[in-house]
Design brief:
Length: about 350
């Protein structure tokens, strides 16, 4: 099997300082912000926040996303203006947010073309995933931040000082707070740290409604979605040898309950609540012939689920990763196979 990624044929991105990035944006007319797939509260809200900051600097900015904005994220101001098919040639700078691999932009062919035409170096990779190789012309990457939104907040604070322009209005603050709520599981995960808590305080002070963000990301669930949680929790098994907590969602579940696959978000974290489990796996028949696997673990369980995800062609973080396989789920005794 050929696991080579298309970006491995390109030179790796050069790290760029926030000052130089500001200079690059200052020279630009139009900036495109791409939210990485699968779209979530970090990738979309960090792109929306950076777009607002770039507009605050007097530039035009658009946010692009290769899939529809899920209902649960439509509360973000600017979500309705997100475009699906950008005209890439119109932009002087293209920043990709929270996107560990080039194909997860959802615009692989176009992005490969743009990165190859290196006379106009303008693709900025802003991320906190482990990347190999680092795609784009320039990169702002830090694996230790809680969310990609933290990197955007660092830009905001540096650029406010450099340009003497206030950039943290209430909608920007709420988008940035959303990135933190999303990637720290409302400040419950081990990636919650002093920087993210200080940033959250600054966002709330600037007008972000923390309770509203928490409701939108973690509470607002329909009866149908809660029934899906019920089915999934009912099927939960703990494998005695691997200490894997596992459950599954079928196409039939999603169809019968009329639930979109992305509304199942959050269930996998609950599976890993079992103290004796090492990690949790949720298999979901997202689309015909596509099984999505979501992996979670917790600090102290000494399990790096991104290693499992990578073996299966996926990726992600140490405690939260995923993969996709072609096939469907078939039950075999107490276990499941993707065939
Ligand atoms: Mn993220």
């Amino acid at each position: 099997m050929n696991n080579r990624k298309p970006e491995q044929t390109l030179p790796a991105a050069q790290p760029i300082s926030l000052d130089r990035l500001l200079a690059l944006i200052s020279q630009a007319q139009r900036v495109l912000l791409i939210a990485g797939q699968p779209i979530d509260g970090d990738s979309l809200a960090s792109a929306i926040a950076l777009a607002r900051i770039v507009r605050g600097l007097g530039k035009q900015a658009d946010v692009a996303c290769a899939s529809n904005v899920p209902e649960g994220l439509q509360f973000l101001e600017g979500a309705a203006g997100v475009i699906r098919n950008p005209d890439f040639l119109r932009y002087d700078v293209i920043a990709v947010l929270d996107c560990g691999e080039l194909k997860q932009t959802g615009y692989l062919e176009q992005m490969l073309q743009i990165i190859k035409s290196s006379e106009l170096a303008r693709v900025i990779n802003i991320d906190h995933h482990l990347q190999d190789p680092v795609y784009g012309h320039y990169s702002v990457i830090d694996h230790h931040v809680s969310a990609a939104g933290v990197l955007v907040y660092r830009m905001l604070t540096a650029w406010q000082v450099a340009t003497q322009t206030p950039l943290l209005d209430a909608p920007t603050a709420e988008a940035l707070l959303t990135t933190l709520y999303n990637d720290t599981g409302s400040f419950q995960h081990s990636n919650t740290n002093p920087e993210s808590l200080r940033m959250a305080a600054a966002c709330v002070r600037a007008g972000a409604d923390a309770a509203h963000v928490a409701d939108k990301l973690y509470r607002d669930k329909s009866r149908q979605v809660l029934k899906l949680w019920g089915r999934t929790l009912e099927r939960l098994e703990l494998h005695p040898d691997s200490k894997m907590a596992v459950s599954f969602i079928t196409r039939q579940d999603l169809q019968e309950l009329a639930v979109e696959p992305d509304e199942a978000k959050g269930i996998v974290s609950v599976l890993s609540y079992i103290p004796e489990s090492k990690f949790a796996l949720l298999l979901s028949e997202e689309a015909p012939n596509v099984v999505k696997g979501s992996l979670r673990s917790d600090e102290g369980k000494n399990t790096d689920v991104s290693r499992i995800a990578r073996v299966l062609g996926g990726g992600g973080h140490r405690l939260a990763s995923g993969f996709k396989l072609n096939g469907r789920l078939v039950r075999q005794g107490k276990s499941y196979r993707v065939v």
